[in-house]
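An example makes the point: we print one protein in full, the chain in one-letter code, the fold tokenised, without further comment:
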Amino acid sequence: MRYSLWMVPTLLAALVASSASAQVPPKRSLEARGPSALLLVVTPDTAPAVPFDHAVELAAGIRRQLERTSMPEYAVVSRASTNRALEQYGYSPDAILSPAAAEALAAALHAKAVVIGTMERVGESYRVVARLGGPGGKAGRRVNLTQAEGQSLSDLGLAIADRLRSQLP
């Protein structure tokens, strides 16, 4: 009998605590909240020997792969939205921007990350140096890739995006 008298308040306290914790809503995952940051991909700067449409194709491959992969904390700015923003600031669609201009565009779009790069011809293939960073000159991570024999520019863009994605915070 002695045990039962002190167990009643203990059991009552345990029931109150368990019912209170059951009423606390669980935290929503990042997927449920949606993307919280924009990621901008711009056409890479090119050497004179690189055709403009090759640079556009590479950027499209990078953008497409970043859009396809699961990155709940980022929303990739579409090519159409990027081109609308470029036109608002007096550039032509798919314009090649200097790194400073690309970062300024990213800041204007409130993007938290931007992919910029350079593209040059090396023999029969291309070498690309891409950087993932933030607007305002925030430090970024670099990826250096050379196009493999028989690899399309779109596939090179996919490979670059995969390497960059693995470096996202």
Summary: The first strand starts at residue 37 and ends at 41.
